[in-house]
Specification:
Number of strands: 10
Strand order of the largest sheet: 7-1-4-3-2-6-5-8
Shape: elongated
Distance between the termini: 145 Å
Structural class: alpha/beta
Amino acid sequence: MKRAIKNHLKDFLAILALLVLSLVVAAYILQKERLRLPFIQPSTFTMYADFQSAKAVTAGQGQSVRVSGVQIGLISGVSEHDGIARVSMAIDPRYRNLIHTNWTALLRPRTGLDDMFIELQPGPGRAPVARPGFTIPLGQTAPTVDVDQILSELDSNTRNYLELLVNGGGDGLKHNGGSELAQVFERFEPTHQDLARLNGAVAQRGADLQQLVHSLARLNIALAQKQRQLVSLVDASDRVFRAFAVQNANISRAVALLPATLRQTSQTLADVQTFAQQLGPAATSLLPAARALPAANVALRKLAVPSTPILRTQIRPFVIAARPVVRNLRPAAVNLAAATPNLAKTFTVIEHLFNMLGYNPASPQHGYLWWLAWVDHDARSVFSNQDANGDFRNLFLQASCATLAQIADSITGSEALLNLTPILTDAGLCPKQAAADAAAYRAYEQGKLSPRRAVDGQVSAGAKLPFLPKLPAN
């Protein structure tokens, strides 16, 4: 077989090309014949339209269903239903949500050979989408109208006059009348445009008039249903107007006072403007507090719920019982209020005294309370006679080395009376004073120093030495 194909390759290619060409032509013809392949192309859905006459409507002849000149389906059948022609329309599935229940269907010929098609047009207002199997009723359809149907509506005299008019027109247009008539029609073009605008306005006026009549009909129906309420309204209006008539003088006086009221209102609003200018920032500042109010209310509710029984059963009976006592305390409270200024001054002085007594200065100084404790200790020791000393008074004094040195320097005869030199020259008790006094004593023995004394480790001139001449040196 391969050898035969190789020997007759040209013939084989020609046969193959003819086969492919035949398949293409067959596919084209089948497509034009609107053949749908099952399981490949989606199936159409059927809708119906009722017409008074379906003359020249034949299924399978490619008669189309159009919307605004666009084909959306084909006429798939015609049947008789109660004396009415029902036309079946096979609509493409992609136009499933296009047609609505208020649409109209017009049966029209494409040419003079009565190749019919159905033109679908949207209706007024809004309506739900028509589902598959929906039938456009007879009131929303219009069949094709032939010339003989128009002539059959005319009487015999009108038909005769029309025949004379057509014949006369033919005679008049026999010799160059057509071109002259075309020129006349061309000159009438602006008039036709104006007439078109006029007809559009008249058509719009007719639509508006139709809407007005419809609205008036609905209004009249509603008024008829509400007759009792209208009677009540008229009676109430009559009473209101009668009351206005009785109060005519008061209304006139109110109208006369209205200008002054308006002026006062304008002045008040001008004064309120300053308050409004302050109120705006204040309200803005209060926004955080307002936002915190819900949380505060929740916390207050948590406090108020357990506190309510206490207020009801404990605090309220106590307040009721305390009212007589409070009434009796009123004169004393008045006198106390008169004495309060003097008491305030007294307590201020006492407060200053206690502040002074309670003041604790920085080390090494001590406050009055510290010394008061030592005075109390010394007083007990001095006035106590219940020990082995009998009538002798015991006294315990405490002071710092600097204080003792100051006493020895400032009080005349303190050395002979208090004998402070052994304390000040003891390195174990007062190391700074002992070192200073020892240095001063050595300088004194060497004749390098006039009488001086040492205070806090430094020698101050012009004072007596706080040591005996024969004090040994450290």
